[in-house]
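Input/output pair, single chain:
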Amino acid sequence: MIGIVDYGMGNLHSVSKALERLDIPYFLSDQTDELEKADGLILPGVGAFRDGASILKETGLSIFLSNWAKEGKPLLGICLGMQLLFEESEEHGLTAGLGLLPGRVERFSGKDEAGNLYKVPHMGWNKLMFQKPDHLLLKNVEEGHVYFVHSYVVKTDDTDVLLATSEYGRVVPAVVGRDNVLGTQFHPEKSSSVGMSILKNYVAFVERGAVARG
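Output:
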């Protein structure tokens, strides 16, 4: 059973519909005692990092999610949800994230290394490039195009957490992960067969973990 964390900033409808299409049992909740019953969690997100981090902190969800991850339970962040997994963001002033993955979220500069200008936000379809094609989240997934909408991007010096990247004026961490903590900067639920395959793989990852935990 997948629990979708409802903290008022998520793309709940599209994520829910994607799980329904895959015939995957799920529930929505903002209550930690209910979310605790899930086998794996999805942290969606649309909006500003500071707002999302504040809500998670005020509701106690930040502590819950940190403990959940430390216990080795599966967690998938999507878009803003992925960014919140990292240490901090500069959006609207420096704000601490969950600190489950190493890195900082910063705004696209709008200019690449050669001085060429590009539009911000990064919005539309862009190609994935696998860094760890053998990772379970990418099993049997093609290096196809996925759908992005974001003005801020993760910067990390720890390339070990990069499972797949894209290019938009710079390297864009597109799929990230370490152990049980995973994330996608793009919206898998809006990314056709590639995104649906990644969601399906996440559920398989969750199910495998649930069996292992007994």
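The chain has a mean pLDDT of 95. The radius of gyration is 16 Å.
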